């Protein structure tokens, strides 16, 4: 069980296509009262639909109190935050997307960077569509067919958004690996896509049907690192990218899964040999050689 949710389920696409629109993962959860995410940024599109309860979503230019039937969209590079209501925390479903056509698809159904929001009165249908997306990733022997099915569900979901917001509208199958290899692939993708969350290696292992020790041993044989070391490396690599942006150190820390900016700075210094502020200064001065090695 995810420590910040009463309920939490997730389906991850092992073979997202580099195409117009592809699903990365989809999930559903019931976070604890007051559960907060951000301020953060993502490098993929992330759409949430509130199924019950309420909460608040904010970007630098938009904010809304969200209730059942409301949908909010996070767009790559957008600084955002959202928080569950303290009395009636929301139950929501989400889907993450990538692709050169996603932004145009969202605009086509009335969701824009300026107004990343939509509403539908048919919550049961929306819930069913999200369930269809998530259950597409049922670990069959044909992951590319799973990806295709998930993309189909997403297009139906976007169609529903458009139908319910007409006033906002603008005038190769590869051989299947052994199961443990597939589960390691799943764990790697889970970490690389969910590193900004408060991940538990125990939770990942149990969700994949393995004991932590067994998964960690197989994971290290594949990658040369334990899952915990791999997670830290992914976070530090992303932090290096974000330190080249105007985000504050606190916002960078939150974006890579650290609630405590001081602890993030300590881990960053341990991994790179310098604190985040010094690394950023070296980047700005063009001293690439001074920002090189990782100690992970």
Automatic annotation (TrEMBL):
InterPro entries: AraC-bd, Homeodomain-like_sf, HTH-like, HTH_AraC, HTH_AraC-typ_CS, RmlC-like_jellyroll, Tscrpt_reg_AraC-type_HTH. This is AraC-like DNA-binding protein/quercetin dioxygenase-like cupin family protein. Keywords: DNA-binding, Transcription, Transcription regulation. Pfam families: AraC_binding (PF02311), HTH_18 (PF12833). SMART domains: HTH_ARAC (SM00342). Residues 185-282 form the HTH araC/xylS-type domain.
